[in-house]
């Protein structure tokens, strides 16, 4: 079942959809997953849709199955996260400008 | 199970080195009948995987090369009005002008659906197309059927094809799209993996050449300010060039000379940077 695993993934911010969780259940019930390694690979392919979250996934996996401590992001990671968010915003300057309520031309460098 | 065996068998047999993890994901996606989305640096073998699967499972491969201007219907079918007009004007073909179905040509997805055998359908570089195309296409692949409006006929897939989708991550794919695929990111091969890949392509390569070529290759990838780092494809082509040159000797590489730099760096700026670095550091 691994429902808690699913919720822990969501908690750390990986966008895991219920549909994909059901797909994972289907894979389990079909007998496609026979070891913890299989589970690691299959669950990642089915649940995690971007390599951006592979690192977080590894941490949650280690936490859930091996009891490793789930650490808070440190300074370096926070910078990375901030950078990713900034890049995400800059993809659409117009949206950003609208959100800030200023002219789009001012946002563009 | 037969599928699994043949997939495992082909790891060493053909020109594709498959890591165990990817093999598992391919097998699971086939079992679950879900498309597999592959991302990764250009030149790390995303497209090659589909070829390898088709070869290993002895299935036909149908490739849909996505273009930015492409409409979904182009990938499904085409109604060849021009030929029909021509036939009605001159009437010298065996086609029946009053029967529109004679003028419907299947596109790549259509071909995969009507094929009498299960095929591998490779949808290459999906990120070039716009979001509507992507979502609509997955609808069709989900339902495994589409309508031909002109003759009011529904085409249903005889066999669900094995679907491989590749993306170079130029644009982010939409969430509904991602939700319907399994995902794998092909990481850049580490030197050990790269040795395997090189020896599959050049079974008779000398140890010296392989070691120095790979060493030079990885240090060139480390250069700062390079826009397009050389990938597996470039390395293979480069080694091919080195081997084809009768004047080339392995000790040149050890000394720090790098011939055929243009094979590795294809952007002129990158080439200039690499050229300078090579002459400066003699890497």
Number of domains of chain B: 2
Widest β-sheet, arrangement of strands of chain B: 2-5-8-1-9
Helix-strand sequence of chain B? HHEHEHEHEHEHEEEHEHHHHHH
Overall CATH class of the largest domain in chain B: Alpha Beta
Low-pLDDT parts of chain B are: 1-13
The global form of chain A is: elongated
Rg of chain B computed from alpha carbons, rounded to a whole number of angstroms: 23 Å
What profile does the largest beta sheet of chain B have? Answer: 5 strands, parallel
Cα separation of the termini of chain A: 50 Å
Overall mean pLDDT of chain A: 82
Give me the CATH architecture of the largest domain in chain B, please: 3-Layer(aba) Sandwich
Assembly annotation: heterodimer
Give the overall shape of chain B: elongated
Order of helices and strands of chain A: HHHHHHH
Textual characterization of the structure:
The complex is a heterodimer of chains A (109) and B (283). With 109 residues, chain A is an all-alpha fold. Chain A is 68% helix and 0% strand. Chain A has seven helices and no strands. In chain A, helix 1 (3-11) crosses helix 4 (54-66) and helix 2 (18-29) packs antiparallel against helix 3. The longest helix of chain A has 16 residues, at 75-90. Chain B has two domains: 2-186, Rossmann fold; 191-281. Chain B is elongated. The model of chain B is unreliable at 1-13 (pLDDT under 50). Classes of the chains: A mainly alpha (109), B alpha/beta (283).
């Amino acid at each position: 079942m691994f429902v808690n695993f699913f919720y822990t993934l969501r908690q750390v911010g990986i966008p895991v959809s219920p549909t994909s969780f059901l797909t994972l259940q289907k894979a389990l019930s079909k007998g496609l997953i026979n070891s913890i390694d299989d589970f690691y690979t299959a669950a990642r392919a089915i649940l995690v849709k971007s390599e951006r979250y592979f690192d977080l996934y590894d941490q949650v996996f280690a936490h859930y199955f091996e009891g490793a401590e789930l650490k808070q992001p440190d300074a370096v990671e926070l910078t990375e996260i901030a950078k990713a968010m900034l890049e995400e915003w800059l993809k659409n300057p117009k949206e950003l400008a609208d959100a800030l309520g200023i002219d789009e031309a001012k946002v563009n460098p | 199970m037969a599928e699994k065996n043949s997939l495992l068998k082909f790891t060493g047999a053909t020109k594709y080195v498959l890591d165990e993890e990817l093999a598992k994901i391919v097998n699971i996606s086939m079992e679950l009948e879900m498309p597999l989305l592959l991302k990764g640096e250009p030149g790390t073998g995303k497209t090659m995987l589909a070829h390898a699967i088709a070869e290993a499972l002895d299935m036909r491969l149908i490739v849909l090369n996505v273009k930015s201007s492409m409409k979904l219907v182009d990938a499904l079918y085409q109604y060849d009005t021009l030929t029909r007009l021509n036939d009605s004007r001159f009437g010298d073909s065996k086609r029946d002008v009053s029967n529109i179905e004679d003028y419907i040509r299947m596109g790549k997805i259509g071909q995969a659906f009507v094929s009498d055998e299960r095929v591998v359908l490779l949808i290459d570089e999906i990120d070039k197309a716009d979001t509507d195309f992507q979502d609509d296409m997955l609808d069709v692949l989900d339902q495994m059927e589409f309508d031909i409006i002109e003759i009011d006929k529904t085409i249903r897939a005889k066999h669900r094809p094995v679907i491989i989708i590749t993306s170079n991550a130029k644009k982010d794919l939409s969430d509904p799209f991602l939700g319907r695929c399994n995902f794998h990111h092909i990481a850049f091969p580490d030197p050990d993996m790269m040795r395997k890949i090189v020896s599959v392509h050049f079974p008779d390569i000398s140890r010296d050449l392989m070691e120095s070529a790979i060493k030079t290759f990885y240090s060139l990838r480390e250069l700062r300010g390079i826009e397009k780092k050389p990938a597996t494809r470039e390395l293979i082509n480069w080694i091919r060039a080195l081997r084809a040159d009768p004047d080339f000797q392995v000790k040149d590489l050890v000394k720090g000379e790098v011939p055929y730099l243009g094979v590795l760096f294809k952007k002129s700026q990158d080439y200039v940077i690499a050229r300078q670095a090579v002459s400066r550091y003699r890497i």
